[in-house]
Design goal:
SP0561-like; mainly alpha; Hydrid cluster protein-associated redox disulfide domain protein; DUF1858
Amino acid sequence: MARVTKEMTMGELLQTYYEQCPEIVDVLTGLGMHCIGCPSSIGESLADAAYVHGIDSDLLVEKLNATINAKLGE
């Protein structure tokens, strides 16, 4: 089961899950978070990134975990 948390950085998220589940990029961009490749976003927590984009961080984490779990069959 995926364990994405609000405290996880964008870099940690991508490093941990992108190879297994590239669909996480669709979740991020679908919510208006197009900063995936920005150097400054890599060290930013998901909570901070969500705040900057006016997104509820709990919703973001929920969608990421659901997408990863669906892809990995968990």
